[in-house]
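Figure 6 in text form: structure in, sequence out.
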C-alpha cells in the first residue's frame, strides 16, 4: 500500500526529510530602542512540483517549495516580512497571530499583483504554533495550490516565571531545546484534476515520502512535532501514532498540554498544535504514524519513525 517509484527531489528543489528541520529564522538586527527585529523574505513563484512518482502538480509556492518556509521567531520580537509576488496571480500572506488590520493579508490590506512588493510588520505574539497562507480570492484555490506554511513563535522564557524551564525547551538554539528532536509537519492534499476532491494526501507534500525514507529519531531524546493541517476540500484531518501516546498542545499557545496521553488528534483546516512524545522506553524499530482516515493513508498520508539506539 505505497506509491511505486521515486520522486525527483532535485527537480522539486526541496527534500522531504530536510523540510522536517529546515527552520527559517530570518535575519536578526536591533532597532534603536533595543527591540530585536527579525526580517524574512518570501517570494510567490509558480512552479510545477512532483507530489508522487510521475504525478506533477502546477503549484503556486512560497520560496519555490510546498509547504512554504517554516518561519520561526521569538515572542516579543518585531517582525518584518518582505513579500514579493513573482507569480501569475494576485497573492498575499495572511498570518495567524496578532497584528493590525492593515497587515492582515486580505484584499485591500496586503494582497498584491504580479511584480509588486509589500512589507508586513507586526510583533511576534502570541507564542505558539501558527499558520500562514495566501488570502487572495478565490481562497480555496490559493491555499490548495500550495501557498501556506508554518509560523512558529517560541516563548520568551523571561516572560514565564515558574514555567521558564519549559519555555526554554521550546526556544530554538537554547541548551534545553537541543535536548529535543523537533520536526515541522504540514498535512496537505492535492486535487490533481480540479474537481474539488483530493487525489493525493501527504505530510510535507510528497506522498508516502516518510514510508520510503522513515524519519530517524534517537530513542534517548524526546520528540516535538509542530503540526498543521492545510488540506482543502476535506473537513477534518488527523494524526495517529502506533505503539505510543503523546501530549498535545492545541495551537501551541500554552506551556501545559491541552490533551494528555492520547494517540490520535483531529484538526480542521488551518488548525495546528504541538505534539510531545518519547520513545525512551521503547525498543528500536519502525513506528508507524498516519491519518486515521483510511482513504488519506492509502493515498499518501502514511509514515514511519525509525527509532534508533544511537545518534540519529
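Output sequence:
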Amino acid at each position: 500500500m505505497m506509491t511505486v517509484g521515486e520522486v525527483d527531489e532535485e527537480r522539486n528543489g526541496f527534500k522531504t526529510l530536510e523540510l522536517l528541520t529546515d527552520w527559517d529564522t530570518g535575519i536578526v538586527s536591533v532597532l534603536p530602542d533595543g527591540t530585536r527585529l527579525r526580517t524574512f523574505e518570501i517570494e510567490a513563484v509558480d512552479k510545477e512540483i512532483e507530489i508522487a512518482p510521475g504525478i506533477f502538480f502546477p503549484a503556486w509556492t512560497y520560496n519555490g517549495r510546498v509547504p512554504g518556509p517554516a518561519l520561526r521567531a521569538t515572542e516579543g520580537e518585531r517582525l518584518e516580512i518582505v513579500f514579493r509576488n513573482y507569480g501569475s496571480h494576485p497573492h498575499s500572506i495572511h498570518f495567524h497571530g496578532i497584528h493590525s488590520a492593515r497587515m492582515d493579508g486580505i484584499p485591500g490590506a496586503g494582497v498584491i499583483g504580479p511584480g509588486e512588493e509589500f512589507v508586513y510588520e507586526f510583533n511576534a505574539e502570541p507564542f505558539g504554533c501558527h499558520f500562514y497562507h495566501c488570502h487572495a480570492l478565490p481562497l480555496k484555490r490559493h491555499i490548495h495550490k500550495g501557498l501556506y506554511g508554518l509560523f512558529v513563535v517560541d516563548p520568551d522564557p523571561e516572560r514565564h516565571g515558574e514555567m521558564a524551564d519549559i519555555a526554554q525547551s521550546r526556544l530554538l538554539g537554547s541548551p534545553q531545546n537541543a535536548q529535543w528532536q523537533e520536526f515541522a509537519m504540514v498535512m496537505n492534499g492535492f486535487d490533481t484534476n480540479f474537481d474539488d476532491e483530493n487525489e493525493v494526501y501527504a505530510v510535507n507534500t510528497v506522498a508516502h515520502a516518510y514510508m520510503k525514507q522513515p524519519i530517524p529519531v534517537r530513542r534517548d531524546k524526546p520528540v516535538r512535532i509542530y503540526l498543521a493541517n492545510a488540506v482543502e476540500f476535506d473537513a477534518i484531518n488527523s494524526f495517529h501514532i502506533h505503539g505510543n501516546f503523546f501530549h498535545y498542545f492545541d495551537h501551541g499557545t500554552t506551556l501545559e498540554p491541552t490533551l494528555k496521553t492520547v494517540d490520535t488528534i483531529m484538526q480542521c483546516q488551518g488548525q495546528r498544535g504541538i505534539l510531545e512524545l518519547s520513545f525512551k522506553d521503547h525498543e528500536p524499530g519502525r513506528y508507524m504514524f498516519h491519518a486515521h482516515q483510511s482513504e488519506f493513508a492509502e493515498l499518501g498520508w502514511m509514515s514511519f519513525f525509525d527509532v534508533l539506539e544511537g545518534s540519529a
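Caption detail: The chain is about 10% helix and 40% strand.
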